[in-house]
Amino acid sequence: MTAFPLPPGSVIGVLGGGQLGRMLALAAARLGFDVAVLEPEADSPAARVAAHAVVGAYDDPSALARLAELSDVVTYEFENVPARAVATLAELGVETAPCARALAVAQDRVAEKTFLNEAGVATVAFAAAHDAAGAAEAVAQVGVPALMKTCRDGYDGKGQRWVEHLADAAAAFAALGGDPVIVEAPADFMRELSVIAVRARGGEIAIYPPGENHHENGVLRRTSAPAQVSRKAAEQIERIAHQILNSLDYVGVIGIELFELKGGRLLVNELAPRVHNTGHWTQDGCEVDQFEQHVRAVAGWPLGPTEPHHRVEMTNLLGEEAAAWAALAAEPESRLHLYGKREMKAGRKMGHVNRLHPLK
Amino acid sequence: MTAFPLPPGSVIGVLGGGQLGRMLALAAARLGFDVAVLEPEADSPAARVAAHAVVGAYDDPSALARLAELSDVVTYEFENVPARAVATLAELGVETAPCARALAVAQDRVAEKTFLNEAGVATVAFAAAHDAAGAAEAVAQVGVPALMKTCRDGYDGKGQRWVEHLADAAAAFAALGGDPVIVEAPADFMRELSVIAVRARGGEIAIYPPGENHHENGVLRRTSAPAQVSRKAAEQIERIAHQILNSLDYVGVIGIELFELKGGRLLVNELAPRVHNTGHWTQDGCEVDQFEQHVRAVAGWPLGPTEPHHRVEMTNLLGEEAAAWAALAAEPESRLHLYGKREMKAGRKMGHVNRLHPLK
Question: How far is A322 from chain B (nearest CA, A)?
Fold first, then answer.
């Protein structure tokens, strides 16, 4: 059994070598930890700032064995970790965080919404289906228009379709590939909020103030934080975060996306059991950012403060937008974060900029 | 010729793999740069967060050739870089910053004080000597008590002796090893201040507010910043920083240690042509810290803001003091920085803690 808290010099394993893994590695290094990254591609953004790099598939037994050998604890930069990988790491005696249940819940939209409702957290109405006939039944149950999504592997707006008429349900199901789907009632929301929360091994919880998110073409464009929310909404968000984290006996940072409806009601849209793009503002708006909080939690350390010292507008730099680095670097209020990706592909998250303003 | 500003993805070479190199590497990574570290010891603190590690002596031609091949620009974490290394890098066509002259000035206490006085910056009275007879003359000229120091390679209080009587001069010279020395008049100072300043490739200068330093046994224990200084002192410090940086046509961060005398007069004690221990408070007290500023300057980027958003007390963690990491991590006002050093040797700088307070 691993003894927590892990002392400095311990090795934190990370599945995934992208920007989230990179920023986790930088935060871990500040606290005196070494990092081991497992990632299929060589020369990944995270591997270039990590003490150890293992190049291999996420479910490659020898790569997982090497990661387990190097690491005192293992965490993830994304939620679609193969269940087999988590099981293999557990068999190898390596503690993983967040727990397998959190990953399982976040990997399947039906499991996610079912979990949330059971935990007393409201979501849109939904129904599950795993064949064409079931899809039609699900649409009939939820009503039209409805949003049909694959249960697994969708992200950034991919793997989903609007169903305007009941008669279109089977075709939509086929167009999504015939995999199990969830059918969701539309949320007539005023805005999307998200909250970054963290739970320590001992159960301590810390919550950042919520951010307000703006998407373009299904991809996050901008988060403004702290969002202006009513006192009632703030309390409701805190309660939701506590419910979710405690119900999962969660360890680490979680990103919770919420819809704020007319009248102020809040529905949870999605969970990300990891550091989250909508929490990047904490890097320059708070003393301890989401990356350090995650490392602290995973390593069994006490959590840090979550109060902001600046208001931040975080904007993602997608594809060629990152070519504006020189102009952005010259803006006195802008803190630039670039991910070290070799190619500026269209829509690819290349970096982000945090623009700082005094707290109101 | 290297074209500046260097685009993200460029490689910043660093001579030295200790904590300063490590914190430079972390700052460079945030801006999308890769780092190559040259350091004699394998598994160094900086190498473990860098994309490339070259293990070799600082004057090993093949190690320098490898560093030059990897790097778009080379900088240093310490000033005692062999002149031969700088010359070799220049022959290999790699731009280095800060410049050779800044290193030469900082490596020799007589050259340093001579440079300062020529730049119109006041120091204590001093005289140079390179043999026993000269040492006696120098002490006679400066008066007793006087502080005799080796011209080169002294740091953290090593390589220096007080001379109380003229008759002791030759013995002190011998005790210091017979190398060239400087004899300095004592500075009857109220306190030691230091200022971290940075100059960009285009000549732009940015200056952090000064810190007040407290030493124990010749080693920095604590820096409090911003120090409370009179408006006149603040202006004088700004003038001194400008004089030094412009006279050296300097590129990068410099640490300038000052004595504040009774009556407010300021003397420069020492220059560190690099990021400096007394500037670690900027990591948590300012939006852009000294490490990012140095990377920006060296890469030909515009500088960032230097205004503080918190008052900080920075305390070094020496040797076994770093064993208190768990208690320090639990202090809500404390931001912990640990260097990843494998052994807690007595007096060794293992990390530091920045304690944050609201600006007065």
Answer: 9
Q: Is A261 in the same domain as A319?
A: yes
B29/A51 touch (CB, cutoff 8 Å), yes or no:
no
Which residues does B149 contact at the CB level (< 8 Å), separation at least 6?
B109, B159, B160, B161, B176, B181, B182, B184
Of A9, A284, A342, the CB nearest to B340: A9
H-state helical runs in B127-280: 132-142, 169-175, 231-247
Contact (CB<8Å) A340/B33: yes
Put simply, whether B301 touches A (Cβ < 8 Å) is yes
Average pLDDT, chain B: 96
Which residue range is the domain that position B35 belongs to? 11-96
Q: Is residue B333 part of a domain?
A: yes
List of residues 6+ apart from A160 with CB closer than 8 A? A147, A148, A149, A150, A154, A176
Within this chain, do residues B203 and B136 fall inside the same structural domain, yes or no?
no
Domain total in chain B: 3
pLDDT single digits (tens) B131-161 = 999 999 999 999 999 999 999 976 656 789 9
Q: Domain with B270 in it: what CATH number? A: 3.30.470.20
The answer to whether residues A312 and A249 belong to one domain is: yes
> Is the same domain home to A83 and A148?
no
Do residues B133 and B258 both lie within one domain? no
Task: State whether B29 and B44 are in the same domain.
Answer: yes
How many A-B residue pairs are in contact by the CB < 8 A criterion? 105
- Which pLDDT belongs to residue A210? 98
Residues A328 and A205 in one domain: yes
pLDDT given at position A155: 61
Tell me, rounded to whole angstroms, the distance of Cα B333 from its chain centroid: 27
Give me the residue label for tokens 């904590």: B19
The whole-model pTM stands at 0.96
Token digits of residue B331: 């202090």
What is the domain-level CATH number for residue B18?
A: 3.40.50.20
DSSP string, B307-352: -BSSEEEEEEEEGGGGGGHHHHHT-TTEEEEE---S---TT-EEEE
Q: Give the model's pLDDT for residue A153.
A: 78
Chain-centroid distance, C-alpha A23: 14
Q: pLDDT tens digits, residue range A271-304? A: 999 999 999 999 999 999 999 999 999 999 999 9
